[in-house]
Amino acid sequence: xFAKAPMxxxxxxxxxxxxxxAVVIDGVNDFAPADLIDPDGGDTExxxxxIGDVYVAHDSxxxxxxxxxxxxxxxxxxxxxxxxxxxxxxxxxxxxxHQIGFQGAxxxxxxxxxxxxxxxxxxCEWNGAGWTQTPNILDWIVSTxxxxxxxxxxxxxxxxxxxxxQVFFEIWVTxxxxxxxxxxxxxxxxxxLSTTAGTxxxxxxxxMISCYHCIxxxxxxxxxxxxxxxxxxxxx
Length: 236
Ligand SMILES: [Ca+2]
Ligand SMILES: [Ca+2]
Ligand SMILES: [Ca+2]
Hints:
The protein is mainly β. It is about 5% helix and about 35% strand.
């Protein structure tokens, strides 16, 4: 009876380093507890603009991001997710014209945007001079209190034959309109325009983002050249 205890501890340890598993994009949270990277809930003035717990998982097909959010009875709420690899030169501006900008050493090559009212999303790719915007190709559910999006490796430019890669991302909630900035952010809490103390609804200059969550992907081996290994690290 007592001999079983060490085996149980070992199994939990393996899961905690980022066990690869698929996520079903259906608005029901099926991420593992160890996939939680940011308990962001409760840091805005109003719940309908608040990002809650943020999760990341991966499997051999791509990366999955899940986050708590419910616009409740509000309208005009939009969600953006910036994605990039370390070597990519990307855009400095927001493809939907919000007061959100990017600066520093790493710029988003991709931004996913969702207009919750109409369930309209766009996959925006930096083309060197502006954003090429492709509507409604994303597997992204926002109709429940837990939103989920799949980002296949071929969509975000991950070389699945490489032994190591990093994927950076940030997620924000904003509202429709050219004076709207990031009301809530996941990584950049210090830049978000809504806090428990109040909200700045309109700004006349972009809020500049330069730091991101990082997903580290290790693998594959020579005999597994189509899948990533089982190790994932996340750091801020
Ligand atoms: Ca799910
Ligand atoms: Ca939040
Ligand atoms: Ca936040």
